[in-house]
Amino acid sequence: MKVRIHRGTKQIGGTCVELLHEGRRIVLDFGLPLDGDSADTSLVPQLTADDLEAILISHPHIDHYGLLHHAPHGTPVALGAAARRIVCAAAPFTGQTLPSLAGPDLVSKKPMDFGPFKVTPYLVDHSAFDAYSFLVEAGGKRLFYSGDFRGHGRKGKLFERMVAHPPTNIDVLLMEGSSLTRMSADSHFPSETALETKLVDTIRNTPGLVMMHTSAQNIDRVVTLYRACRKTGRTLLIDLYAAAILEATGNFHIPQSGWPGIALFVPEAQRRLIKRNGWFDLLNRHKKQRVFADGVKAIASKSVVLFRPLMMADLETADALADSCFIYSQWLGYLESGSYQAMEEWLCRKEIPVNHIHTSGHASPVDLRRFATALAPKSLVPIHSFAPERYSELFENVVYRDDGEWWEV
Question: pLDDT tens for residues 138-166?
């Protein structure tokens, strides 16, 4: 079995790994670089359809699937059923090109055959819903691709089960190291439960509206926020995008638009989008508990809004910002890069205090070491990290590879 990492040996985002055996190929992830343009064809890994069995997508984050619309026509795409629905639900709102997603569904621990390759997916704890690692077997060799994972989320038991009962005889482990640029070797990220406690305290100490900026696709975080709202007696306001994403999970143990303590708030920009695209069936499914902009002021002190920047004008016009606070619950790198400059300027003008309450979607260095020790690979290859040089300090049997380099397992 031969391997080529098209992109990822020295960066986070844009991950793509090609495997070749007996003249047949599979690809693990087909991601867009963090600073990339999805229309830029120079970023697309060069593959031919003739011998390509499938592209397997580990989870529904753009940096792992965002170039799929450039993939060879007719290539089967394997990903989780819920992940497939989330990609389809998000695309009309985000403007991301919807790729062809025809192909088999991943089911945790259920092996799948793709030509000479046997692939076993493992459901993992990650900030993306329905995320997987892959065990790939071919030619008597075993490669494990970690995908993105963590051990401190609401599905942390998956991580503990993996380290307690790992797959054995791993020849090569491709392991992400997203946290290695920002944490010491003995550091831990806070858990979602710890975040819930912080959110409860912040909400209780805010007289007015609480606005929390996090991704609606971070389902763990939405669950955390909903639980905090229930504990503080507040209503969680979500927009139609969030309602559609939550519905797409297909898991009705996860908060939904019709649940007690949740209401639909459709900002004006989204209302125009609904009208322009005729999304009336979607709106009708979620409008049972709808709150209009002119009613937000009256309920501000008893509400938390799952905030998106397109809501700024609506909340300002509604005069709903008195004694409010803002919670930023995403990677700080987005702020440092200026991605939310207009939002930051708005918060400053309105003199709204900002709190940072967040935890990573990726494993801490401590959990990375536990993971690597449990799998005990013959060689460990860095991937999905801006600090590959740290691997040799923390892990055994590290072998460095370059983007575009073919090598044999």
Answer: 999 999 999 999 999 999 999 999 999 99
Angle between helices 240-248 and 268-277 (to 10 degrees): 60
Fold matches, 2-184+361-408 and 192-356: no
Work out the burial of residue 102: count CB atoms within 10 Å of its CB; fewer than 13 is exposed, 13-18 middle, 19 or more buried. Answer: exposed
In this structure, which topology does domain 2-184+361-408 adopt according to CATH? Metallo-beta-lactamase; Chain A (3.60.15)
> What's the pLDDT score for residue 195?
97
Q: Are 56 and 25 in contact (CB under 8 A)?
A: no
Rounded distance, CA 200 to CA 379, Å? 44
Residue 234: per-residue pLDDT? 98
From the CB of residue 125, how many other CB atoms can be counted at a distance below 10 Å? 24
Angle at 7 between CA 376 and CA 74, to 5 degrees: 105
Residues ≥6 apart with Cβ < 8 Å to 136:
1, 19, 26, 28, 117, 118, 119, 142, 143, 144, 145
| Fold adopted by 192-356 | Rossmann fold (3.40.50)
Q: Which pLDDT score, from 0 to 100, does residue 337 have?
A: 85
State how far the Cα of 25 lies from the Cα of 155, in Å rounded to an integer: 32
Supply 157's token pair: 């038991």
In the predicted model, residues of the chain with pLDDT beneath 70 are none
Dihedral in degrees, nearest 10, Cα atoms 31, 36, 41, 45: -30
d(CA 404, CA 199): 44
Helix-helix angle 192-204:219-232, to 10 degrees: 40
| Segments making up each domain of the chain, as ranges | 2-184+361-408, 192-356
What is the model's pLDDT at position 339? 87
CA 43 to chain centre: 21
Condensed to tens digits (0 to 9), the pLDDT of residues 362-395 reads 999 999 999 999 999 999 999 999 999 999 999 9
The pLDDT value given to residue 96: 87
pLDDT at 270: 96
pTM: 0.95
**Three-state DSSP state, 14:** coil
Rounded distance, CA 91 to CA 117, Å? Answer: 31
